[in-house]
Amino acid sequence: MFLSVFDMFKVGIGPSSSHTMGPMVAAARFLDMMRASPFEFRGLRASLHGSLAFTGVGHATDRATILGLAGFLPDTYDNDKAEDTLAAINATKTIVLDDLGTLQFDPKADMIFDYDHALPGHANGMVLMATDAQGDVTLRQVYYSVGGGFVLTEEELAQGKATDEGDPIPYPFKSAVEMLEMAKTSRLTIAQMKRANEVSRGCEESLAKGTQRLWQVMNDCINRGLERDGILPGGLSVRRRAKGIYDSLMAERGMNLTAPHTINDWMSVYAMAVNEENAAGGQVVTAPTNGAAGVLPAVLRYYLDHVPGASEKHIEDFLLTAAAIGGLVKYNASISGAEAGCQAEVGSASAMAAAGLCAVMGGTPEQVENAAEIALEHHLGMTCDPVKGLVQVPCIERNGLGAIKAVSAASLALRGDGQHFVPLDAVIETMRQTGADMHEKYKETSLGGLAVNVPNC
Questions:
Q1: Could you tell me which of 300, 422, 414, 424 has the C-alpha nearest to residue 364?
Q2: Contact by Cβ (8 Å): 70, 85
Q3: What are the tens digits of pLDDT across the range 211-231?
Q4: What does the alpha-carbon distance between residue 237 and residue 231 come to, in Å, rounded to a whole number?
């Protein structure tokens, strides 16, 4: 099993990897299908189902789908150009593409929210259609946005877990047990094994440049969030808090008046800065999702800014170790809130961050696995219940607490010798089972939990 670090961490836009980035990617794939088709097309339609319908407006799923059909991609997204394009589509009721011509598309009529008919493969389902001059559908494809910006067609999903058809990799582990056994046999760290796998499919230079860019985007996002205030979009009137907290923390520095637990506020403010940017539709890195995008950057920033002896040369090891753990969770369970609740998003992110921190602080592979296990275990059962379908309440603060748990988990693991009672594989399987048993209303539909018990207007 091989999932690249660049699969687990993708540069994109907020507010959601599954509800914003995924539909945009699906639309881009559909355009490729149209280009490969012998038919001549005159129009486009789209329908959203399940969680994509219920929380689509709050997650800007309709906007993302339309922009995807207009040729936009998450990693090259230009907000000003997007606004101009949307205005033109609304005015002309057409989408103009250089290679496909002028296509009829009325956002009010052709962008459908189907609340009554869930698709069978996954909670995040959508159907994209192309029509002929008479308005008849001549090309149709079902897509599922399965979390973290990953997209599968219904045919791909029906085939089961995606098989890796690339060249063999040196360390192909599918479980934590296999990972630890390979580490023991090879006498390599998890990051070293993951690096060897990555280089076998690419090169050291592209890996180094790619991981540098990932951290640059993550850190830039933190900094933007620490500098901006105001009200977040969406109608809840949630105000940005990261800047005020950060300013207060900076003012207190050097005064010897703060309690030791104030370090928790630093971890939280880094995470909240990212998720406030995400909620505003800014550029983020899925880690492994947008809804959980603040946890890992916060822990890495905490390490660099607050841990004695920290070094930027360890950033790549942090990301590689975290990606290895994230790959195990995705392969054996889920990173999708619509599939398994927030335990699959913030829980997975916390486990990944705990593993990364433990690794760069000198932890053995066994201690790294223990750190990930502790963090994920203590997010089990967490529901995904965003108020008004917006990635704001409780998501922003939840990332801060996920970061704190990650650091605590790494610290506890480093205090031990790596031997522990509950294995990571068992926690991942428990998370999968818990997600399967969880009622739909607690899985990113905004039909239960805080979403119905907190006034949202």
A1: 414
A2: yes
A3: 999 999 999 999 999 999 999
A4: 6
Contact status, residue 340 vs residue 440, Cβ threshold 8 Å? no
Provide the whole-model pTM. 0.92
Polymer length of the chain? 457
Asked if residue 423 has a cis previous peptide bond (ω within 30° of 0), the answer is no
Q: Which residues of 54-66 are buried (b: 16+ CB within 10 A; e: fewer)?
A: bbbbbbbbbbbbb
Q: What percent of the chain has pLDDT over 90?
A: 94
38 close to 79: Cβ distance less than 8 angstroms: no
Q: What is the DSSP string of 139-183?
A: EEEEEEEEETTEEEEHHHHHT-SPP--SS--S---SSHHHHHHHH
* Whether the Cβ atoms of residue 73 and residue 149 lie closer than 8 Å to each other: no
Q: How far is CA 207 from the centre of its chain?
A: 20
- What tens digit of pLDDT does each residue of 232-247 get? 999 999 999 999 999 9
How do beta strands 43-50 and 111-114 pair? Answer: parallel
pLDDT in tens, 405-438: 999 999 999 999 999 999 999 999 999 999 999 9
pLDDT of residue 255: 79
Q: Which domains does the chain have, with CATH numbers?
A: 15-158 (3.30.1330.90), 176-453 (no CATH)
In the predicted model, what is the mean pLDDT of residues 75-104? 95
Task: Compute φ and ψ for 143, nearest 5 degrees.
Answer: -125, 150
User: Cα(259)–Cα(148) distance, rounded to whole angstroms?
Assistant: 37
Give the residue carrying structure tokens 């789908």.
65
**Under DSSP, is residue 374 helix (H, G, I), strand (E, B) or coil?**
helix
